[in-house]
Amino acid sequence: MAQMITAQEAAEAMFNMVKEAAGLRKLKPMDLTKNLLELFGDRVDKQICKEAIRELVESGRCVYTYFGGTYLELPHREGAAND
Amino acid sequence: MPEPTRKRVTDIGPPHYEQFLPPAIKENYGKWLYHEFVKPGVLMHVSESGAKLFTVRAGGSRLMSIQKIRMICDLADKYCGGYLRFTSRHNIEFMFTDPTQIDPLIADLAKIGHPVGGTGRSITSIVHTQGWVHCHSAATDASGIVKSVMDGVIEHFTHSDLPAKCRIALACCLNMCGAVHCSDIAILGIHRRPPKIDHANLKKTCEIPNVSASCPTAAIRPGTVDGMPSVVVEEDRCMFCANCYTVCPSMKLNDPLNDGVSIWVGGKVSNARHEPMFSKLAIPYLPNNPPRWPEVTDAIINIINVWKGHARKNERLGEWIERIGWPRFFQMTGIQFEKLHIDDFKHAGLTFKRSAHLMF
Amino acid sequence: MADKLPPTPKLDELEKGPWPSFVSEIKMAAKSSLASQDLLGLLERSYNEKIGHWKHGGIVGVLGYGGGVIGRYCDLPAEFPNVSHFHTVRVNQPAGWYYKTDALRKICDIWEKRGSGLTNMHGSTGDIILLGTRTDELEPIFAELTAIGFDLGGSGSDVRTPSCCLGKSRCEWACYDTMALTHDLTQSFQDELHRPAFPYKFKFKMSGCPNDCVASVARADISIIGTWRDNIRVNQDAVLEYTKNGLNIQKEVIAFCPGKCMEWDGKQLDIDNSTCRRCMHCINVMPKALRPGKDTGATVLIGSKAPIIEGALLSSVLIPFWKPVAPYTDLKDLMGRIWEIWCEEGKNRERIGEFIQRMGMGNFLETIGVEPIPEMVAHPRENPYVFYEEYLVEDDEEEGQDKN
């Protein structure tokens, strides 16, 4: 039985994916989960991914955004924003 | 970033409905036997226990101020022990057990400008979207058309004088937040021109890969325009959903020259008699003519009058059209049939007339 | 502040006429709200120019939630600074839209202090809509709402706020307790409602009978419509009473019966319940004489949506007859299986109805472990392009061989 990664580790991996995709591609929460399952195989499961996403959002490192579908992104000033 | 201001409470969900139920409702929950229409806008529900509950239904505008909500609360305090409810179509319902309260309440509602009706064979409040009041992709205003149409058909709200009920709905673009596509009469805002791209600012305000990815029909690709990195739109693939504008304010779809309204008829959601049906295109384009959209209002009043004059009792608009046939609908309403009425998207062939069952 | 209202000759036209005027509502709110004052000016401008002046804000929200706030910015912030931000807050309504006035007044007080004072009672999905506030007010609004027992509703790719007709609370036709089911599902799916994890939105709507007063068949991914399996309950004396009062049963009831299952001989109404389609028409016309049967429950349908992206769909039958019994574990387990496959294989912005069309209803049913039955189709397939999944080979004629 493989040693499971922690939600913290999962969050870190997800954060890096979001950071690398910033400006190029928007990632949905499910994309991140799928990427992690691919990356860590049976060392991660959907519940850990769910906790990781919650950790990312509640710490403010990532935000949910909505542009015709929900994505996870780095907090940033959007094109439409006014002061 | 928003900062938490105190210990945050989350995921509590809505309050339990039970605390908001009037005592007469709580006592007779699940025990109702039948109902009667006392008069337009007034219902009487009778319980197995013999208890009677009277409901007065007042028409409301969907856009409502807190000042008005407080006035309505005052009436609910005065007549209903502090309880009230809203319907799925923005009507306000006052419930009580003493029938002598009906007329005084109706008089008080009239004082604050709210008519009573919308029950039985009537037109009730129009469900609608936000329009120019709040929406970024609106092809028309919602509240203004709704107000104008309701002013024109209010006699059918206050009197149950139609062959059957008639549900009108408005969506201010084809995204249809209001899901109007199964209404007796649907008013649909339409864009007719692909996005006008602000090439000078697009790169500054938006991420080009994301703009390109936003298009459901893959009509947008990255490209260089006048030496500037931007996007190019394949215009004949655009179906005017505005998702690109949602992602990027430099892809403006709204266009005063081309935006307008289309009218769709004959849909229903109820299973009564005929199965649920989609609304079908009656009028492909009417101009935006604020503040009162007379072309839209006249078109709807005309359709209602022709239906009212010819349908059998109980026949909703779509059921009547099905009986008399679409050729006669166009003939009787004087609406011109044209190329745009014929579907040309997926499975369009299913909408062609595939028999010799014709009426002359 | 009232004397500062901008001139609005076009909008003023919409204060005339008998129907309640939204312009008067904005003017009322403008007495104590600068945002509503600017909204009047901006809307007048839209009425002159025939164009809207809003931009979509996709990032604003409250910490931790991916839904409940719709971002809006005005595209003329210099001229209309008080609607520079004009975000909407969706507040999850109590099931059935019943209120006590003290609860409504508390919401009004919060919204007077922290927003435009404008609302929708209610939005299309069912939420209380608080229309127009600034980004920095969102967290305080959320904190004050939860302090009085309210929470935000759904938006984005999540479970949208479930809604229902008033069901057994005031309707004799309700075949199950719509409000109880709605409240239970809303509470059970709080995480799915607040933390979007789906390919796109997912809506539940509960109607107590086939009249479908909340239009669930047209706009819910899961439409739960009350029905019954046994016989329509008939009170023959009451039927007679209706005819004495002028009802023409032949013309107004029997002629419209889609099952052609009724006969009337002037004294007795006979119903062949085996071909009754549970449409409600006869019951609607004679509510004192006819009632749904006693063996009640619901038909569960799946997949309706508005046109975006692949075209509008109506829901279709998934479970012909379901007995809703709290805590509804069977339904929730089924939802879990549906969401599992949809999240796994659904494309971005693909509603469940579109997903089913793409993968095939048969394959979908197999994946979620539901038996295909004839109630699910209007008729069997007409097209002969059948994708048979197995065939026999010469030396192994006993057993089927999987093509894959």
Question: What features would you describe in this structure?
Answer:
The complex is a heterotrimer of chains A (83), B (360) and C (404). Chain A is mostly helical and 83 residues long. Chain A has one domain: Arc Repressor Mutant, subunit A. Helix content of chain A is 48%, strand content 10%. Chain A has three helices and two strands. The radius of gyration of chain A is 13 Å and the shape is elongated. Chain B is globular. In chain C, helix 8 links the parallel strand 8 (204-207) and strand 9 (222-228). Chain C has 404 residues and is of the alpha+beta class. Chain C is globular, with a radius of gyration of 26 Å. Chain C has a five-stranded antiparallel sheet. In chain C, strands 7-8-9-14-15 form a five-stranded mixed sheet. In chain C, strands 10-13 form a two-stranded antiparallel sheet. At the B-C interface, strand 1, strand 4, helix 2, strand 5 and helix 4 of B face helix 2, helix 3, strand 1, strand 4 and helix 4 of C. Strand 4 (63-65) of chain B pairs antiparallel with strand 5 of chain C.
In short:
Chain B contains eleven helices and 15 strands. By secondary structure, chain B is an alpha+beta fold.
Biggest β-sheet strands, sense, barrel of chain C: 5 strands, antiparallel
Give me the side-by-side strand order of the main sheet of chain B.
1-2-3-6-5
CATH fold label of the largest domain in chain C: Alpha-Beta Plaits
Structural class by secondary-structure content of chain C: alpha+beta
Number of strands of chain B: 15
Helix run count of chain C: 14
List keywords for this structure.
heterotrimer, A: 83 residues, mainly alpha, Arc Repressor Mutant, subunit A, two-stranded antiparallel ribbon, 3 helices, 48% helix, elongated, B: 360 residues, alpha+beta, five-stranded antiparallel beta sheet, five-stranded mixed beta sheet, 11 helices, 15 strands
How is the topology of this model organized?
The complex is a heterotrimer of chains A (83), B (360) and C (404).
Chain A: H1 7-21, H2 29-40, H3 46-58, E1 63-66, E2 70-73
Antiparallel strand pairs in A: 1-2
Chain B: H1 23-28, E1 32-39, E2 42-47, E3 52-58, E4 63-65, H2 66-80, E5 83-86, E6 92-96, H3 102-111, E7 127-128, H4 143-153, H5 155-158, E8 168-171, E9 185-190, E10 196-197, H6 199-205, H7 208-214, E11 220-225, E12 228-233, H8 243-247, E13 251-252, E14 260-265, E15 280-287, H9 294-310, H10 317-324, H11 326-333
Helix pairs in contact in B: 4-9
Chain C: H1 9-12, H2 22-30, H3 34-49, E1 54-57, E2 69-74, E3 87-91, E4 98-100, H4 101-114, E5 118-121, E6 128-133, H5 138-147, E7 163-164, H6 178-188, H7 190-194, E8 204-207, H8 216-219, E9 222-228, E10 233-234, H9 236-244, H10 249-252, E11 262-264, E12 269-271, H11 281-285, E13 290-291, E14 296-302, E15 316-322, H12 329-345, H13 352-359, H14 361-368, E16 390-393, E17 396-402
Parallel strand pairs in C: 7-8, 8-9
Antiparallel strand pairs in C: 1-2, 2-3, 3-6, 5-6, 9-14, 10-13, 11-12, 14-15, 16-17
